[in-house]
Amino acid sequence: MSRTVLITGGTSGIGRAIAEAFIADQAEVFITGRHPDTVEQTAKETGAHGVVCDAGSPEPVAALADRLGELDVLVNAAGGLPEAASDGLSPLDALLAQWHSSLSQNLLTAVLTTASVQEKLTGGGSVISIGSIGAERRGGSYGAAKAALAAWNASTSAELAPKGVTCNVISAGFIAGTNFFQGQMTDERRAALVAETHNKRVGTVWDIAQTAFFLASPGARHITGQTIHVNGGAFTTR
């Protein structure tokens, strides 16, 4: 039977790769994004259902949930670096805006979306959230939000596991093919990140997509409440 999959932040990078992995398995996939043009284009190119939705805002998230019937897999892939604060703010106000942005994008998107659809998740379903190696490293407000994501995941797993739903975080290391670094990645920084891995290669969006696909498979039913590190062996304690 075909599964129904919802992927927030599914228009590019990791989210899109995960969508394509499930579509290849004949799943009915819904992807969300904040920008109508990219949602429409990605839906057309992949065959997914595109929904314009800011996953960090309650009203559009509730409207999204109302569109869905039973749901087999939820992937919380929405996230990113904090948006720049408006000019003219005091240093403390700018700092607060930065932290609000990080928490909204990387934690609250998952919290709100999961809460809105959890009653629709079927027994044998899965919630998968995309974390980051930044949670264990010098990730600033972004890393702190991803660390909070892991803590939230553990409590959500305890809540949903009796209903037959697994909940896990994939903590991604350096992954090429995303918009995360916003064009600021230098050759030197790239080389340093690769050098930290044990297998001496760049991570790809497909590394994360295939991990997500496994976590939603019958072979992963006893894996829940976990943070799965996918970083090629990069050190996580610096």
From TrEMBL:
Family the UniProt entry places it in: Belongs to the short-chain dehydrogenases/reductases (SDR) family.
Which gene specifies this protein's sequence? fabG_8
Q: Which Pfam families match?
A: adh_short_C2
Q: What is the lineage of its organism?
A: Bacteria, Bacillati, Actinomycetota, Actinomycetes, Kitasatosporales
Specify the domain of life of the species encoding this protein. Bacteria
Which organism does this sequence originate in? Streptomyces violaceusniger
Which named protein is this? 3-oxoacyl-ACP reductase
Among the GO molecular function terms of this UniProt record, one is: oxidoreductase activity
* Cited PROSITE patterns: ADH_SHORT
Keyword entries, A-Z: Oxidoreductase
